From TrEMBL:
<dbReference type="InterPro" id="IPR051797">
    <property type="entry name" value="TrmB-like"/>
</dbReference>
<dbReference type="Pfam" id="PF01978">
    <property type="entry name" value="TrmB"/>
</dbReference>
<protein>
    <submittedName>
        <fullName>Transcriptional regulator, TrmB</fullName>
    </submittedName>
</protein>
<dbReference type="InterPro" id="IPR036390">
    <property type="entry name" value="WH_DNA-bd_sf"/>
</dbReference>
<dbReference type="InterPro" id="IPR036388">
    <property type="entry name" value="WH-like_DNA-bd_sf"/>
</dbReference>
<feature type="domain" description="Transcription regulator TrmB N-terminal">
    <location>
        <begin position="14"/>
        <end position="81"/>
    </location>
</feature>
<dbReference type="InterPro" id="IPR002831">
    <property type="entry name" value="Tscrpt_reg_TrmB_N"/>
</dbReference>
Amino acid sequence: MTFQDQITGIASELEMILDLDELEAKVYLNLLRAGPITASALAKELDIDRARMYRTVDKLVSRNIISTTLSSPKLCIAAEPQDALKIALRKKEDEVNRIKKDGEAIIEKINREITTKQGTNAPTFRVVQGRGNIYADIAQLIENSSGIIYISTTLEDISRMYHSAIPEKITVCEKRGGKVRLLVELDDPKLISFVKRFNATETKICKLPSKGRMVVQKDKQMIMSDSTSASQMSSNSESDFSLCTNSSEMVSNIHSLCSLLWDTAQPITSLDVKNYITKTK
């Protein structure tokens, strides 16, 4: 495996943690490897347009993830990984505190000045854009559940969900008496530990009907992304779209499909995976 292959694998995980796009993560990791270097030299090394590299460096500098020297030419220096993580955490904490403060104020104002009229039995539909927004919806669905939730998705999606709030919300769901059942397609027994770390209540492997994502709770809600959206997840998190609905008919159909897949799937143990892979090849 080349260094750039290793970079690509690490970058996909780093994007979610530090809220970077694919190029920003790649630039940061290569700066860590190369040490102080000019933006022009790094652009040449990575075969990236210089103007695009300068824009990326400026964005990373503004977020304190990299810094530049006062020398001529300027050298780019990457922040230590632990410092970059602290910066990302502070940013998220500040954002949460701001939303909480402003949210409480606006809710009080609404309750004081506006008479709200709620209540409808009509099913609702939402198209959610952006991986972070979708994962937030999935986390909320899991956190509020005391029943069985099915998650059917790809290994790549699981690796990204692992770095979101979803694994923590699974624990909350279990404390409420609920379960999260994970369905995944697996072609290498060595990846069992990778899948198990996701923290699902139960996990099984099977041949999935598509490369999309299905999350559903019976009689409640479903969140679904098609295979086209899923295939774009690695290149751009904003290209990830999901349909969220509480339509009883759609929820029932997807729940029935996931239940059927679960009943025919294999438990995830080393022996079972090896036997399953042998049979399906």
